[in-house]
Amino acid sequence: MDARDLLLPGFAMAALTMLVMFRMGFERLSQLARERIHPQAVATSAQMSARLKDSRAADNFRNLFELPVLFYLALLVGVNQDLASPLTVGLAWAFVGLRVAHSAIHCSYNKVPHRFAVYALGALVLWTLWGVLLAGVL
């Protein structure tokens, strides 16, 4: 394994974030046009939540800047410390897969127990990755 193997899951997470961003933009613009809402009427997050009914993609987009920030940092630590291994790469891909599942649930039927279970499992995978990296650094 080399550093590139550890970076590929980061590119996949960036692609997921981009897809959710495009979905969010499409949904927002569609609703603004459909309901004839002037863009200035939703200039703040408070105005946006009061006027726009479906915020699933926007909520998920914001969520992709929470735990994934620690994921991106973990990848950089792994690359910097030459810790790419089948275990670290496997954990990284597992996190990406769980985030894809989380986004799919969040942006579609949005059942909180399902979404939370996938989120919690993803967090566990991420903390495991950090533990493996710490052990490699020590």
From TrEMBL:
Keyword Membrane: yes
One cellular-component annotation, GO: membrane
Gene3D superfamilies referenced in this protein's UniProt entry, alphabetically: Membrane associated eicosanoid/glutathione metabolism-like domain
Major localisation: membrane
Segments traversing the membrane: 6-26, 91-109, 116-137
Keyword check for Transmembrane helix: yes
Pfam hit, one: MAPEG
Keywords carried by this UniProt record: Membrane, Transmembrane, Transmembrane helix
Compartments in which it is found: Membrane
Entry protein name: MAPEG family protein
